[in-house]
Design a protein that fits this description.
This is indole-3-pyruvate monooxygenase. Its EC number is 1.14.13.168. It catalyses: indole-3-pyruvate + NADPH + O2 + H(+) = (indol-3-yl)acetate + CO2 + NADP(+) + H2O. By secondary structure, this protein is mainly alpha-helical. It has 2 domains: about 50 residues, no CATH class; about 50 residues, no CATH class. A 3-stranded antiparallel β-sheet has the order 1-2-3, with no helix packed on it. The protein is elongated. It starts with a helix and ends with a helix.
Length: about 120
C-alpha cells in the first residue's frame, strides 16, 4: 500500500496516513508502554535504516496483560528482574526488544556486485 501511495504522494503524507491507519487498527498503544517513534515509519526506514515492526499477536498479548512492557531492567535474579525504577518483578521469561536495523541494502549491493561477473 505504501509503495502504491508513494507513486502519487510525498513520503511525509504517506507516513501520516499510516500513523492514522495504525491508530485505527491498533488503538492507542502508548497506554501499554509502547512508545511511537517521533518520525513516521517510512522516514525512519529511509533516514536511519530502521524498520518499525508491530506484530499483531504480540500486541494482543500486551493488551490482554499476558506480556508486560517495561522501560528498563537493572539486573536479573533467579526468576525475577529488578527494574531501573527499583521495582522487582517475578518473571517466567524476558524478551529484550532493543530494536532492529535492516541490512537489506548491504546484501543487495553485494548481490549486484556478484551479478556483474555473470554477464
Amino acid at each position: 500500500m505504501a509503495v502504491f501511495l508513494l507513486k502519487w504522494l510525498l513520503l511525509w503524507p504517506v507516513d501520516r496516513i499510516f500513523v492514522v491507519l495504525t491508530r485505527l487498527v491498533l488503538g492507542n498503544i502508548t497506554k501499554y508502554g509502547l512508545k511511537r517513534p517521533s518520525i513516521g515509519s517510512l522516514e525512519l526506514k529511509n533516514t536511519q535504516g530502521w524498520t518499525p515492526i508491530l506484530e499483531i499477536g504480540a500486541i494482543s498479548k500486551i493488551k490482554f496483560g499476558d506480556i508486560k512492557v517495561v522501560l528498563g531492567i537493572k539486573r536479573f535474579m533467579l526468576g525475577k528482574v529488578e527494574l531501573t525504577d527499583g521495582q522487582i518483578l517475578d518473571v517466567d521469561s524476558v524478551i529484550l526488544a532493543t530494536g532492529y536495523r535492516s541490512n537489506v541494502s548491504q546484501w543487495l549491493q553485494a548481490l549486484s556486485f556478484f551479478s556483474s561477473f555473470s554477464s
